[in-house]
Amino acid sequence: MKFLLIFLIFYISSTSTFAKKSQDEKKPDWAKKDIRDYTDADMERLLDQWEEDEEPLPEDELPEHLRPMPQLNLNELNPDNPEELLQTTKKGRTLMTFVQVVGNPSRDEAEEITKLWQTSLWNNHIQAERPWKLHKAAGETLKKYSSTEWTNLTERPKVKVTDMPPMSEPVKGLPRPVYINFKEENQRTKVSVLSNGLTVASEERFGEFCTVGVVVDSGPRYEVAYPSGISHFLEKLAFNSTKHYPNRDDMIDKLERHGGICDSQASRDTFIYAASAYTSGLDDVIQLLSEAALRPRITDEEVEVARQAINFELETLNMRPEQETILMDMIHAAAYKDNTLGLAKLCPAENLPKIDREMIFTYLSHHYTPQRMVIAGVGVDHQKLVDTVQKYFVDVKPLWESDPHIVHHRKNLNTDHSVAQYTGGMVQEECDIPQFASAGLPVLSHIVIGLESCSHQDQDFIAMCVLNMMMGGGGSFSAGGPGKGMFTRLYTNVLNRYHWMYSATAYNHAYADTGLFCIHASAPPTHVRDMVEVIVKELVAMTGNVTTQELQRAKTQLQSMLLMNLESRPVMFEDIGRQVLATGQRKRPKYFINEIEKITKDDIMYVAKRLLGSQPSVAGRGDLRKMPSLEYIQAGLIDSEGRMPSGRKLSLFR
């Protein structure tokens, strides 16, 4: 019995093993693998097999997006109820509607109507496709073959969803918008001269804001009879207490009521007071400007505060790695030694205690006269501006005329009318220049090499500006981009070629009687001589061949810069004020665009040769132990290839 039981168990296990082996032989090769050895193709086949073997789920257990959509009974829908129609299209259901439009609109009119309808559906997160205008027969055929349950909506009346008129009709009760009508005569600068010789210039501009200000023929170039730095003091004293306003806060509070801001700026030959505000506050703004320019109190306390502010500014400039402000003073001092434009714009530290209230009023009384001033405005009515200026600048006297005791009466303090005399020369300052703290840059030495340029009224002025744009330049670590000038000569020939050059930028300063073209560059002290050689070579190369591409690029960039800058009201105001102060009129931007376009290669080479015909001016600051002498630089500028007297060759990798 025991033997029979053992035999039966053996027979059953053998049968199951043979059956399993028979089933394994029927399986494909990929199914015999361990799942850990499956390839991507094996996994795909396995998933396909599972889907085939899977039994379908009941409808109530399917995900909502897989359930069959219930059939709509459009007979139960009310097309007069837009909300019900919109709810029907929820959850992915598609609804086709046929609407008969009253009248016989054209295709363009139907497009405009359906765009509004489609946009409103999109705003409610409903995907809607635009309908097409169909002929009646086509509409009947489409309805017939689309579904047997579509409701014929063509016989229903037109639905009016809102009482508001369509967007194509003006809204009742609202004023009709007034659009800008461009007229050439509205774009011209209007100029008037008042009874006392004061000039008023303005130009209309769209918008609610305006920029107005006072441009004075004043600045450091006229301080030859005074301690240099009075203009620097006036810049700090501007918009303080006046005869009408007890303190600065009252003045600013009055301006802020009209959403306004104010500022003052001193250049070498011009001083500007300006304010921007709502046009409706023009009267208050003009009064404020007249008080700031003609009736400042300038108390001893305010002078002392200005003195401390200037002293702090001078200390800050010496501690900054950027040297442009100081170097521009130095190069002008080298180019116009001890005269006019060579006088310091920054108040020298030794002159701080020399300038007092009485000296400042004396300077104002001689230079802030009607014949030396222009009131300019942008975005204002010209006649209203003239009336307001008459009221506050002419009818009310300046403070020094109503109180003559506040000024000196020495004859040698009169206005200086000297013509700028270009001398050339060298100014150096050995000092330690701070590093850029976070940039990891080395200590740098800075040099500027300048040549006499032309005035802004010279016939070569436009060509000189194009040449300046062609030279371009910038810093090695400044971000580039369209219009940055990455293809200018100082980038391609200098910054991209010599790794030790950290900056090289060309400048062209133009004044009423002269000009100064210069290049400012910086490099480590060990490469100061190399830096000078590179800049001299580029200055000489200006007289050589000019490619058509670089000339056109420079002209286009200059035109673009001109137009983009004049989009700003403050810049446009300054342009009007400076031009009218210099010539009595303003030339339109179109004039300069056309003049720039006329510049040729010969013009560029001519003005470059004109530059090299003058004595060089050199300014240097920092570690200048390897700075070559002025004679060596001048010899390099005379050489046809810009080679300075040196026996060694310039290396790219020293």
Automatic annotation (TrEMBL):
An example of a GO molecular function for this protein is: metal ion binding
* CC per GO annotation: mitochondrial inner membrane; mitochondrial matrix
Q: Locate the Peptidase M16 C-terminal domain: which residues?
A: 354-558
Q: Which keywords does this Swiss-Prot/TrEMBL entry list?
A: Membrane, Mitochondrion, Mitochondrion inner membrane, Signal, Transit peptide
Q: Does the keyword Acyltransferase apply?
A: no
A GO BP entry: protein folding
Any single Pfam family the record assigns to this protein: Mesd
Tell me which positions the record assigns to the signal sequence. Answer: 1-19
> Cellular location of this protein?
Mitochondrion inner membrane; Mitochondrion matrix
Query: Is ATP-binding set as a keyword in this record?
Result: no
Spans traversing the lipid bilayer: none
Residues in Peptidase M16 N-terminal domain copies? 200-348
**Subunit arrangement?**
Heterodimer of PMPCA (alpha) and PMPCB (beta) subunits, forming the mitochondrial processing protease (MPP) in which PMPCA is involved in substrate recognition and binding and PMPCB is the catalytic subunit.
Q: This protein is called what?
A: Mitochondrial-processing peptidase subunit alpha
Source organism per entry reads: Phaedon cochleariae (Mustard beetle)
- Record lineage: Eukaryota, Metazoa, Ecdysozoa, Arthropoda, Hexapoda
